[in-house]
């Protein structure tokens, strides 16, 4: 049988399943207000199949039947299987999440489409054929982006916030969704809906639109609209709001100290906007918010937050997804066997990425059986499981997955990274570069010599290439995130042999000397370069806050990312080809003094015409 006929046959099986045909379809009286075709599928499922449907699992490999030794070894360690197809045969999970970690899932658009079809084929040959939720975190920008070029690399949320055009957010999310759907990814864990008011936030930062809840709300709504228009399921995250913390929930337990009134004014509006625009899914945060739940439980495990606020007060009817259960923020208080049970009791529907033990062995089997046993011993009712499974199945049906979960692999090249999409990428990005302080721009396109130094091997080289195309001779000296004094001295020596210096910084504000932090090296580098007397242009290619730690710099720009399009836009501004249009979407406080404003929200210089 040809591949196309096999796909058609499996797709027919999915239609049979959703129609409730075959043995076991005779059921009790219809439940009012429910989709009867979804209920017929639900009623065919065993308890174990229902519980498995709640989980979204990571799997290694670039094909569903991979035999790559590294991928097989990694999958064996997690699940005791070789590949995604065997994982689905063994456990029947509801979803798979793609990552770019090694060994990756994401190598090329064509390959991902083939992987997605293989996963859906495995899902549709099960006893109860149910299409798979296939997920990734494609927030765009330079921080949380899984799918590589030639996939269109749009600027991230904070860059869009700087551009101040919600229509651009709609365009980027719609095109992102179209390209994801073309390669079989039907769910995006985006948009980030946090309001980033803490300059020391180690985990959100530029993933957030900005520090103003009104601005964030407008852009979150536009992104939700764009994803929904593309047919991809959006997920607003991280409820109830992860924007005011200096602790990373991947490695610790953040505590948000907002009062209830502060939370309602600051953190809540973007989620209300997402719900008003029909967002299908909301992801929980592994954060403690005592004003909303004094128990000390993280929001992911908090019934007052997930059920009391999100369900009952905000009337959210969609899927509540947890952030990854492998993150420390949800593992500190309870054992890994208790976490999924407590998340379901709190109101969660979808359980993402179970953890591993200290030796890297997967704990999915432990968590899966913990939920099953909680039903069998009466801690959870099967009707509670049914509620979540119904929401997940209904969402899959609403987005057409039961009708056809497959993608046309022959059309991927014509739908991903197209000329029109790439033109939109550059056009949108050109509106985001923010000129905060100016003493040297625009540069002249002449034969001067320019040193390009600072953070990022590919970043400094790409930027130097872009500058060289405009005329200047360039020298590249990459100094890293934590340059030593010897490295700084080398950069200073090179600066003296050049006419101007362009230096990139990445989280230079992270001046702590504790392990895991950047330290003061980047700030010291900029200060030393400025002291040479050469014209120095500083470009923060991640957070805009860096300038607080080297106020001596006379020219400072923020790009909020370091994609090739971001660096091209930066270069255009450097040479006056375009006038900078970006406005700060955050307030930049003075170093060590968050109550003193150095550059206010909305700052953004331009060139006089």
UniProtKB/TrEMBL annotation:
<dbReference type="InterPro" id="IPR002772">
    <property type="entry name" value="Glyco_hydro_3_C"/>
</dbReference>
<keyword id="KW-0732">Signal</keyword>
<keyword id="KW-0378">Hydrolase</keyword>
<feature type="signal peptide">
    <location>
        <begin position="1"/>
        <end position="28"/>
    </location>
</feature>
<dbReference type="GO" id="GO:0016787">
    <property type="term" value="F:hydrolase activity"/>
</dbReference>
<keyword id="KW-0326">Glycosidase</keyword>
<comment type="similarity">
    <text>Belongs to the glycosyl hydrolase 3 family.</text>
</comment>
<feature type="domain" description="Glycoside hydrolase family 3 N-terminal">
    <location>
        <begin position="46"/>
        <end position="394"/>
    </location>
</feature>
<feature type="domain" description="Glycoside hydrolase family 3 C-terminal">
    <location>
        <begin position="434"/>
        <end position="606"/>
    </location>
</feature>
<dbReference type="InterPro" id="IPR036881">
    <property type="entry name" value="Glyco_hydro_3_C_sf"/>
</dbReference>
<dbReference type="InterPro" id="IPR017853">
    <property type="entry name" value="GH"/>
</dbReference>
<dbReference type="Pfam" id="PF01915">
    <property type="entry name" value="Glyco_hydro_3_C"/>
</dbReference>
<dbReference type="InterPro" id="IPR050226">
    <property type="entry name" value="NagZ_Beta-hexosaminidase"/>
</dbReference>
<protein>
    <recommendedName>
        <fullName>beta-N-acetylhexosaminidase</fullName>
        <ecNumber>3.2.1.52</ecNumber>
    </recommendedName>
</protein>
<dbReference type="InterPro" id="IPR036962">
    <property type="entry name" value="Glyco_hydro_3_N_sf"/>
</dbReference>
<dbReference type="Pfam" id="PF00933">
    <property type="entry name" value="Glyco_hydro_3"/>
</dbReference>
<dbReference type="InterPro" id="IPR001764">
    <property type="entry name" value="Glyco_hydro_3_N"/>
</dbReference>
């Amino acid at each position: 049988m040809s591949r196309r006929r096999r796909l058609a046959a499996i797709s027919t099986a999915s239609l049979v399943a959703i129609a409730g045909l075959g043995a076991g379809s005779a059921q009790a009286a219809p439940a009012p207000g429910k989709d009867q075709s979804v209920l017929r599928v639900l009623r065919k499922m065993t308890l174990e199949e229902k519980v498995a449907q709640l989980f979204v699992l990571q799997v290694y490999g670039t094909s569903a039947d991979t035999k790559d030794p590294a991928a097989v070894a990694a999958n064996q360690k997690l699940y005791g299987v070789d590949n995604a197809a065997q994982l689905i045969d063994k456990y029947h999970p509801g979803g798979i999440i793609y990552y770019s970690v090694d060994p990756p899932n994401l190598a090329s658009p064509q390959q991902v489409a083939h992987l997605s079809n293989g996963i859906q084929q495995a899902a549709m040959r099960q006893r109860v054929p149910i299409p798979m939720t296939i997920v990734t975190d494609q927030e765009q920008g330079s921080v949380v982006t899984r799918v590589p070029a030639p996939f269109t690399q749009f600027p991230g949320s904070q860059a869009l916030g700087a551009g101040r055009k919600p229509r651009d957010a709609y365009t980027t999310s719609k095109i992102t969704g179209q390209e994801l759907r073309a390669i079989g990814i039907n769910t995006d864990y985006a948009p980030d809906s946090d309001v980033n008011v803490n300059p020391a936030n180690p985990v959100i930062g530029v993933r957030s639109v900005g520090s103003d809840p009104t601005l964030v709300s407008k852009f979150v709504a536009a992104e939700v609209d764009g994803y929904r228009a593309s047919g991809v399921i959006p997920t607003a995250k991280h409820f109830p709001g992860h924007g005011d913390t200096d602790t990373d929930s991947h490695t610790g337990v953040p505590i948000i100290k907002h009062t209830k009134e502060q939370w309602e004014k600051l953190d809540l509006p973007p989620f209300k906007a997402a719900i008003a625009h029909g967002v299908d899914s909301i992801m929980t945060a592994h954060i403690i918010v005592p004003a909303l739940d004094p128990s000390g439980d993280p929001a992911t495990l908090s019934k007052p937050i997930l059920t009391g606020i999100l369900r009952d007060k905000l009337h959210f009817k969609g899927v509540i997804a947890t952030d990854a259960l492998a993150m420390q923020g949800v593992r500190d208080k309870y054992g890994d066997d208790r976490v999924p049970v407590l998340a379901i009791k709190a109101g969660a529907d979808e359980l993402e990425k179970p953890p591993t033990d200290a030796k890297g062995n997967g704990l999915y089997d432990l968590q899966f059986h913990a939920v099953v046993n909680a039903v069998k011993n009466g801690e959870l009712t099967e009707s509670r499981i049914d509620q979540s499974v119904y929401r997940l199945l209904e969402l899959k049906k609403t987005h057409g997955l039961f009708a056809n979960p497959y993608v046309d692999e022959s059309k991927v090249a014509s739908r991903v990274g197209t000329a029109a999409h790439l033109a939109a990428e550059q056009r949108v990005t050109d509106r985001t570069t923010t000129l905060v302080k100016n003493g040297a721009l625009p540069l002249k396109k002449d034969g001067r010599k320019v040193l390009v130094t600072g953070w990022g091997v590919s970043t400094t080289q790409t930027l130097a290439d872009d500058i060289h195309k405009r005329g200047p001779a360039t020298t590249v000296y990459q100094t890293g995130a934590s340059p030593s004094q010897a490295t700084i001295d080398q950069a200073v020596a090179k600066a003296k042999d050049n006419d101007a210096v362009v230096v990139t910084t990445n989280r230079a504000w992270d001046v702590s000397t504790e392990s895991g932090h950047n330290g003061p090296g980047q700030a010291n580098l900029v200060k030393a370069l400025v002291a040479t007397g050469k014209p120095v242009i500083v470009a923060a290619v991640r957070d805009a806050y860096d300038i607080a730690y080297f106020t001596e710099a006379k020219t400072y720009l923020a790009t909020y990312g370091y994609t090739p399009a971001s660096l091209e836009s930066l270069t255009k501004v450097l040479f006056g080809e375009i006038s900078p249009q970006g406005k700060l979407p955050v307030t930049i406080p003075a170093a060590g003094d968050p109550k003193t404003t150095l550059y206010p929200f909305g700052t953004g210089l331009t060139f006089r015409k």
